[in-house]
Amino acid sequence: MRTVLFDVDGVLIHSMFHPDPARHRSWSEHIEMDFGISRDDFNQFFRKDFGDIVRGRKSIVTALDVFLPSIGAKINSIDFLAYWFENDTPLNFKLLEGIKQLQRKADVNIYLATNQEHLRAYHLWKELRLSHIFDDMFYAARLGAAKPDLEFFQKVQDQIGEQSEKPLLFDDGQKNVDAANKFGWEGAMFLTEDDFFNHPWIKEQLS
User: Fold this and answer.
1) 179 closest CA partner among 168, 187, 191
2) Which of 62, 92, 138, 206 keeps 20 to 30 A from 197, CA to CA?
3) CATH of 2-17+90-206, one of 3.40.50.1000, 3.30.450.20, 3.30.200.20, 3.40.50.1820
């Protein structure tokens, strides 16, 4: 049995940072129209507190309670998060179908390995029903460590136990892929579904 892990944003969910404009997805595209919030102003949030939020050191609600009024936003934090999560989850259905096919044809454990805080992780797992596909979700706030820190990989390794074959991680971040390889896993760069379907081991399993 082999363990295969997937990042979420940029892999299972189409990313606002994808280099191909045709695949670019941005949940915050209309926040100025909807709430009068400048996207540039809101992006300060990711530079200020998000590292601590993702690692579970600070509540995203508490941080937004302070941040949103500072940029003149009139919406409360809970309603803003509901809007954020609803619009920030364009699933990659082609990849998900490929993962289901892999589960049917190969002896695998399938996990998520992602930098998430608690509330969005819950939304992904329960509301998007990723729990119906994946065996578990190892996320940064749960572990207290984030990719590409090697501590993240060690804590995941502690959860899944020793493996007879290198765990395979698909991730859209080169630093995360490099860290996985450094830790002793097989890190595979993901930009499109072809990177999954054409991976030699995956291709062999699906043939």
Assistant:
1) 187
2) 138
3) 3.40.50.1000
| 83-105 CB burial, b ≥16 within 10 A, e <16 | bbbebbbeebeebbebbeebbee
Q: How many CA atoms lie within 13 A of 190 on its CB side?
A: 24
- The model's pLDDT over 58-96, given as tens digits with 9 standing for 90+, comes to 999 999 999 999 999 999 999 999 999 988 888 999 999
Between 60-70 and 39-48, two packed helices, what is the crossing angle to 10 degrees? 140
User: In angstroms, rounded to a whole number, what is the distance separating the alpha carbons of residues 92 and 99?
Assistant: 11
Between 9-13, 130-134, 195-199, the lowest mean confidence (pLDDT) is in: 9-13
CATH of segment(s) 26-87: 1.10.150
Q: What's the mean pLDDT in 35-54? A: 89
CB 31 within 8 Å of CB 37: yes
